[in-house]
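TL;DR need C-alpha cells for one chain.
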Amino acid sequence: MDDERLIKYIDGLSRMINVPTISDTATPNGEAFAEFHRLIREMFPRVFDTFEYEEFHGSILLSHIVKCDADPVLFMSHHDVVPENGDWTHKPFCATVDGGKLYGRGTLDTKGDLWAILTSLEELLEEGYEFGRSIYVESACNEETTQAGANEIADVLKKRGVRFDFTMDEGGMISRDPTGISDGEYAMVALGEKDCIDLRFVARSCGGHSSTPDKHNPLSRLAKFIVDVEKHDLFKPMISPVTIEMFGKLSQKMSGMQGFVFRHAGAFRHILAKKLPQISTRTNSMVRTTLCFTKAKGSDACNVIPTEAYVIGNMRRAHHDDKDEIMKKLGKIAKKYDVEIIQQDPGYGSAVSDCNTAQFRFLEQTIAENFPGVVTIPFIATGASDSKFFSELSDNVFRFAPFRVSGEQLGTMHAKDENIDVSALIPAVEFYKSLIKKL
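>> reply
TL;DR here they are.
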C-alpha cells in the first residue's frame, strides 16, 4: 500500500515540478503560472471545492471558514522558483527519480511543501474529516523576486480583521547536525529572520582611454572599498535570546565541556559571541550582520575607463544591529574612496516570535510524535521568506517544512541538482494531517 501511495506522491509532485514557474521581474511568465494554477485545481479537486479560492496577480489564497472561537491557522508556501543554475545532472523541469531522490527545481524551495500541504488537506477531505477550526493556505508567485504577492495578501487579511493563532512557512527542515556544532537530528523552526537589504556602491570618474590610466579608476576604488570593508569587523557578534534557547536544545546531545557551555549559553554568551564566528561561515551568520558582494559592473568596452562602476552588496541585518548605525559605518569607509551608497530597497525586518508559548509547544509535540528522536530547535533564519509580512497578523510566526534532508540537499536550493529523498514524502504528508487533526 505504501508503495502505491509513494508512486502516487512522486507522480503528483513531479507534475508540479514540471511546470517552469520561474519568477523573473524582467521576463513575465504568466502562462506558466496559469498552467500551474490549472494543474493544482485538477490535482486537488476536493480542496478547491471546499476552500474559497482567491487570486492576487498570480499569488493565491485558499480559506475554509468554520464557526469556532479559536483563531485560524495559516499554512504558507510559494510556487515560483529561481532559474536553473549550473550544469544539472537531470533536467530541472523534468522531474527525475534517481538513487531514491527526486530531482527538480522547486522540490525543496518550495513546491514540495505546497504539495504536502495540499495533499494532506485533500486526503483529510477524502476521509470525510471535518475541520475543527478555520484553515488558510497562501502561496505566492513572486517570493523569489518582489515578494509583492504575500505583502498584498497580508494587507488584505489585515483589513478584514483576520488574526492567526499561528502561521507556518518555509524556513528550517529536519537534518543531522544542521549547525555544524552538535551531532544528532534536529527540526529547525525559525522564529524570525534577518532583515534583507540590497545596497549599491557606486564610483564615478570622467572616463577615458585605458591606455592612459590613473590610480583613481572607479573599479580600483571599489576594489579597495571591498577589501577595506571585509578587513574590518564592522558588524559585532551578539548572542540573542533565541540563540541561547537554540544552544540549550542542542546541548541535549552534547557531552563534556562543550555540553556544559551550551547548556549555560546565557552565562557564556560573550565568549560564544567571539568564538562562533571563527568556527564556520554558518555559525558566523548566526550571530552577526553579514554583507556579501554579489554583482558588479564597469565599462561596456575592454579599452574604456568606466565613467561609472558599481557593486551590489546583499546585507542580512541581525536584530541587534541598528540600520542607521550600520549605514554610518559603511558610509565612513565609502567616503575614503569617493564611493556613493544607494539603498536599493528599504528592507523589511521581521518580528521574533516566542518559543515559550503554547503554540510553539504544540508544534514541538507534533514534530516529536511524527519524527521520534528529533529535537526541535528554535533559531533565527538567515534567509528571507514571506513570513515577515504576517508578523502583524500573528504573534506566532513559525518557519518550518517537515522534510528530512541532508546538508548536501540544503545546498542545492538556488543551485544545481535540487532534490529531495522520496522517502521524505509520506512522513511530510502525515505530519500535516496529524497537526491539522490536533488543532
